[in-house]
Amino acid sequence: MNTQDKVLKAEEHMGAHEMVEMKGIGYLPRDMIIEILSRLPAKVLCKCRCVSKSWHDLLTRDVEFMARHIEWSKQKPLLLVRRYLSDGIGELNKSKITIELTSIDMQGDVTDKFREVIDGPVHTFVSCGPLSILCCMYSLYVCNPSIHQVVRVPYRANSRLYNIGFGYLPVSNEYKIVHMFYHSFVGNGKMGCEIFSFKTGEGVTSGSWRGIGDCPFSAWTDEYPVCVNGTIYWALSSGWKDKSILCLDLEKEEFSSISYPIHESKKYSFLEYIGLMCTLCVVGFSAEASTMDIWMLKDKKNKTWAIEYSINLFPLRPKFLVPSDDHSEEILVHMEQRDLICYSLKSKTSRRIGYYRAMKTYNKPCLYYGSLIPIHSTSS
């Protein structure tokens, strides 16, 4: 029986399963190939793109494969850490600096790193799924660290960038970058809002900016925004008593606000918000009791909160949270003792991540998961 007859016989046996020939593998059902390769890390798959044209097409253009790969990658999130280098790259233009981005797994081991020259220090460093945002004073970048792509977002020349949020809308398969800014530093202090949207797989430069009017609240804050289930949240002020949360529904593009949970007499020395298990959470640490309380927004419409977890952290003291995927059941807490603790809400167990072993200088990390989805335009 020749090769063609074998293929025909296999197709009859497999029924509706499409048979695909991959160099080095031979003929296998297409769904089996996707299932096998989608479990590999993005770094390995990037090398596999060079095997043949069929491998390259599958790993760079196949929407079904990329979606399946992301689902597996979510189970193994990575920390992304940035640091600035003074190695001479970009020295000719003093406004440019070299940034090194390092990926670290949940065991504290370095999995990848690369360098990029950008226009100045980063003041906002946030992620959403597989992509990250690096915002400088006058320039803005989208980064897919898995494939070492960094793309500058088109923006008005010499226009300063202020408060940046980043989110994803599954219903329309698009990312949205939200920029809030003061029209001027005099007058009523109202903030304008503009949104840059781009579709997954179409490239960042295929997107465009558009204004959505003024934000009804002031959201000038040092805290990074978080995106939970298609809504971006910002802190509205720095004090506990008057503290509330600004909300922007990315689908409706409408603003609202939520008060922080009532804390009665308990005083928190540490207070942040985060997305966990598809819900907005406020995390407060009581130094007196050495406990960390997790308030969850139980009813978004009626804006009601409830304490769902109270975790004993003695003798550790939290310094800040590392924002995680909003579907995660694990919370990452950076401690004053320079430990990173991963606490599972499901199993109620914790483990230490030794991510300082690979770091000479430190900046707050963000969390992402691997993806092969390009952010360059397909024509580039």
**Uncertain stretches of 5 or more adjacent residues:** 6-16, 87-93
Shape estimate: globular
Largest sheet: 4 strands, antiparallel
Mean of residue pLDDT values: 82
How many helix segments? 5
Structural class: mainly beta
The total strand number stands at 26
Order of strands in the sheet with most strands? 5-4-3-26
Give helix % range.
10-25%
Q: What is the rounded Rg?
A: 23 Å
Topology readout:
Elements: H1 3-14, E1 19-22, E2 26-29, H2 30-37, H3 42-48, H4 53-61, H5 63-73, E3 78-85, E4 97-104, E5 110-118, E6 124-128, E7 131-135, E8 140-144, E9 149-152, E10 163-169, E11 174-182, E12 191-199, E13 208-215, E14 226-228, E15 231-235, E16 244-249, E17 254-259, E18 270-276, E19 279-286, E20 291-299, E21 304-312, E22 318-322, E23 330-335, E24 340-344, E25 349-353, E26 366-368
Explain what you see.
- With 380 residues, the protein is mainly β.
- It is built from five helices and 26 strands.
- About 5% of the residues have low confidence.
In short:
By secondary structure, this protein is mostly beta strands. It is built from five helices and 26 strands.
What keyword list fits this structure?
single chain; 380 residues; mainly beta; four-stranded antiparallel β-sheet; 5 helices; 12% helix; F-box-like_dom_sf
